[in-house]
Design a protein that fits this description.
homodimer; UDP-N-acetylmuramoyl-L-alanine:D-glutamate ligase; nine-stranded mixed β-sheet; 13 helices; 14 strands; 39% helix
């Protein structure tokens, strides 16, 4: 893959600022928040929940955006396509992703709707429960996807969460088609078991006909194939994608490719503080190593190392210098 | 002090959102940032520095605001007076301080100027270098000080940093006079050695004639009296205030009261991550214990415990449940 590309990975995803606060299980049940999953909420509900939330910390987020931020931190060449508003949180998002070295120039949305916010309630067991107000992010459309940039990227990375938005879905389709036409790899994350549930037929079509590199966790891949055993899901995904990287929390990950399957152990973490962004970080490590032409074992190991960094502190993006991690595999 | 007050402590201070990012010493010298101190910058400089800054995390800050947030976290009754703009960062500030239980109802500034931001560069030695754009915060004026609320508070706490703003200075004077008239305690922090340098004569008058409880670190109190030895500063401050709580980083603190001086050891911290907010946290612990009628030794110990919590992680406000700390002294 030592071609004359401009980017290793260009991602298309939601452009979100996270608001992280601590909460207990009682709070989740009192306000009917489904633990561990991502729910889409409207502006009024976001306002209400924010009023009830404890003191917060703001940090740029968004699943695919976290992934390209990780790739850039590892020393990779990354770009991002996503929609913020022309407001203070939009400035925060743009600053943070550019500051880590990701190319980001999707024009901001002018007028009314504000930048997307994800209220993240972190419980003492380090689980995160996410309530997302999509705002300007849902206005991403095909006109924001530069086919030239996609063609100049080794991999295009698409976020399943975006499938909830009709316009954004068109943008992703356009990116996938442009990548296929240019002979680039299409990578996709299933994002969330409930997201899979909402779009199963379309996701199956995508996975079976367009995706080269699939990311999913255990419950997402089992939801996709409506099976009760992880092994059944592995059997089903085998052969559809060039690579399926399936994460299993503390059990590590299984990387399925043709008849092969690599089992990668999870990295030990002294104290798991906040699992927000674990899957995004795994995809970052994996795709960075992949774009460098490394074997699947190295891809999985770098994914595990980066995920371990991110879950050992509060917040979805890495806090330490990642180049040392990249050199370790 | 078991009177019929409504608040233990009402603070008057800057209403600021912090933007924290990591930086190295080379960055500080390249951009002529004076390490360890707080500098006031204008909007253009803030824009430029933010563009150069690494990826950040936003969290509510402001020195006196951090202190009352700490007091509320400890279970105390606290209020805050300070000015945000009617923008997203203003909403963040208001949410966070209210969410921790502090009464805050200063009306936001309408129009043009944005909420204050403090760009905080944290170096690997855990030192913080602060560049503050005051924005709406500098528009705080005497009309924002409710004398009834001051009279209903055991202690009014004033931030030296505010002295740079003529209108805010009037607001603080009004608060100090209202407290004195109602027989309440006036507490003041010198904030920063350079701030002391800019306002030495006025600060001396304040300390010698109006302040009951003074907070200062070693370099601030030495700057106030233009002396080269800490002990000389202790001799000078003795007798002017009812209490002077003088902090000395890893050497702990010295609490001077009349002919007495209590020496309090610093709390051990396994890894000092970020010293942002250490002094604010000390004042919070101290004032909370003071308002509960505890002796000066208990006040200093709770100050040290809270400061230790805050410097053991990134950001100026506590992350753990402080009520356990309050119960420990």
């Amino acid at each position: 893959m030592n071609d004359n590309t401009q980017f290793d990975v260009t991602a298309v995803g939601n452009a979100i600022v996270d608001v992280l606060a601590q909460a207990d299980d009682r709070f989740l049940s009192d306000h009917e928040l489904e633990k561990g999953v991502m729910s889409i909420i409207d502006g009024a509900r976001a306002e209400k929940l924010y009023g009830l939330m404890g003191p917060g910390v703001e940090a740029s987020g968004g699943s695919a955006a976290n992934t390209v931020a990780g790739i850039a931190g590892l020393g990779g060449r990354a770009a991002f396509i996503g929609k913020v508003a022309d407001d203070q949180l939009g400035q925060v998002f743009r600053h943070d992703i550019r500051a880590v070295g990701v190319a980001f120039d999707t024009p901001p949305l002018k007028g009314g709707i504000s930048t997307a916010r994800c209220l993240i309630f972190v419980t003492p067991d380090a689980q995160r429960t996410m309530q997302t107000f999509l705002g300007a992010s849902s206005e991403l459309g095909p006109e924001d996807v530069d086919e030239g940039r996609i063609a100049a990227s080794k991999v295009v990375y698409l976020e399943g969460y975006l499938w909830d938005q009709p316009l954004a879905k068109e943008a992703m389709r356009k990116a996938a088609v442009a990548a296929g036409r240019a002979g680039r790899k299409v990578s996709f994350t299933l994002s969330d078991p409930f997201c899979v549930d909402r779009h199963r037929e379309e996701f199956l079509d995508l996975v079976e006909n367009h995706v080269d590199i699939l990311f999913a966790n255990e419950s997402e891949i089992m939801s996709l194939y409506k099976v009760n055993e992880f092994e059944q899901a592995v059997d089903r995904v085998r052969g559809h994608c060039e690579v399926a990287a399936l994460t299993r929390s503390e059990l590590g990950s299984v990387i399925v490719s043709g008849r092969e399957a690599e089992v990668i152990g999870a990295e030990a973490v002294p104290v798991v503080v906040d699992t927000t962004g674990a899957g995004d970080a795994y995809a970052a490590g994996f795709l960075h190593a992949y774009a460098q032409g490394r074997d699947l074992r190295a891809c999985g190991r770098l994914g595990s190392l980066l995920a371990a960094e991110v879950i050992s502190h509060y917040g979805a993006r890495a806090e330490t210098d990642l180049r040392a991690l990249a050199a370790a595999v």
